[in-house]
Amino acid sequence: DWLTTLPGLVTTEPVAVTIGGLDGFMLDLSVAPDWTHTCPYSEGKPIVGTFVDSEPGTGYDWNVGAGNGSRYIFLEQPDGRSLLIEIGAPDKATWDALIGEAMPIVESFQFKP
């Protein structure tokens, strides 16, 4: 729910999925056409930060850039933690081709307890 409320982010409705025995949901993300926020490494292109390490420079920094395609798949692990799988592409044409090839691979994943 939190991702669907981020300013500048456009999302599809979350869809329930089961992958490799884990339940969760997936949604596609893009940057709103009127969003103008940038950051030092976005080369002047609009960007929306999604997940950022609490200690800058020490971990991860996930975001969605203007023109990019992203799919986030969240799966609940038996210990209660979430697993995030991201499929991303730098532009719409690449995204359209990639998602059709990537999803069968992701759907083939099997997770061990």
Write up this protein.
This protein has 113 residues and is mainly β. It is 14% helix and 40% strand. The chain contains 1 helix and 7 strands, in the order βββββββα. The strands form 2 sheets. Strands 1, 2, 3, 6 and 7 form a 5-stranded antiparallel sheet that branches. The longest helix is centred in the C-terminal third of the chain and has 16 residues, at 92-107. The radius of gyration is 15 Å and the shape is globular. The mean pLDDT is 90.
Give the SSE order as H and E letters.
Answer: EEEEEEEH
Percent helix among the residues? 10-25%
Query: Which descriptor suits the 3D outline?
Result: globular
Class from secondary-structure proportions: mainly beta
The chain-level mean pLDDT equals 90
Which regions are unreliable across 5 or more consecutive residues at pLDDT < 50? none
Measured by DSSP, the beta-strand proportion falls in 35-45%
Q: Provide a count of the helices.
A: 1
Using DSSP, what is the number of strands?
Answer: 7
Radius of gyration: 15 Å
Oligomer designation: single chain
Largest sheet: 5 strands, antiparallel
Distance between the termini: 27 Å
